[in-house]
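pinging the channel bc i need a second pair of eyes. not urgent but kinda urgent?? the chain im working w is below, pasted from the shared doc
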Amino acid sequence: MKFVYLASLWLVLMVGQVLAQIPAASPSPTPAPGKAQAKPTLASLARWFEVQTATITPRYRWVENSARLTTSNHAQYQDSFKGRLKFDARGRYSLNAGVFSGAGFTQSWDDTGWGTGHATSNLYLKQLYFSAQPVKGVELQIGGLYFNRGESTEITTYDNDGYLVGERLSLKRPRQLFFDEVAVTYAYLGDLTRANLNKRYHRLQQSNYHQFLVSKSLGKRAAVSVDYSFHNGVETLREAVKLNTPELKVLDAVRWENYERLDVNRAYGFALTGEKKAGAQLTLTGGYGHIDRRYDGLNADRFNRGHRLFTLVSYALSPEFTVSTFLARAVGNDYALPNRTRFEVLCSFNLLKGLQRAGIL
């Protein structure tokens, strides 16, 4: 397994170096009359198939719990692929799919076998849904869905790796409805260790999760969202606002998000995040968050519960390669936490951008 991981990483780096030497593709000139037409390329498949995401990311992760014991000290890797099959040229009717590594609701990473843990290799179809847009601004989705978070993030909602099975109606007609989006989701949220959608299709007949969400952009200055969700008898209200603040110089954007659990184990949590771009390649992100101790554990595994300071630094080596570090430290908590301190180093290879720049897609 270690050899396979090394070989894969070497291949990614070599492909990246080759792509970096290829100039951006320019449109092919129209052939003169009587001359042979160019042979079809992968780009010609865009009429039917659209690749939306294709990334490969190795990382090093170190985690220490409240007892100052190291619980994770290893290398992992993540594969993420999203795409859709279009049934018409405009893509109003499509079949959307998401294939990811990782075997659980809050897990999209596989272990290499280096350090703690055992080598794993998983690649699952986690999302697959049919999308219909019969008229502009109206979309119906049914099948294995992604979460709709509005302006909130995985800190106060659900992990980015999470999944649903159900239906969603999304209305994006601000002239008639004022809001930029009004969305209603009825779905089943569960099967937390059964990432494979092929084992979850029967959940289309069940529903334990409802969400009602509205979002609105306030020009270029701000965007806000509010949603109410119901999961297994627990009601939660979430609000979030993102402000673009270039005039501050110190921060380019600020995001405030919070939740209130309304009935069962009433509680409140929030996260405040700031972002600053230092040039075209370097992005600095940091903030503070609090997730109450009775939260269901389905939010980002980087945060989970507790009071926490965090920072993320990303540097784009090229359009395809990004290196980043993440550090989070729990502070002021009077109960045990599995992730008191967490540190990560990640190297993400955007295969899609590489293929697009090479003119292949």
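so The radius of gyration is 22 Å. and The helical segments are 2-20, 174-177, 351-357. — does that match what u expected or am i reading it wrong
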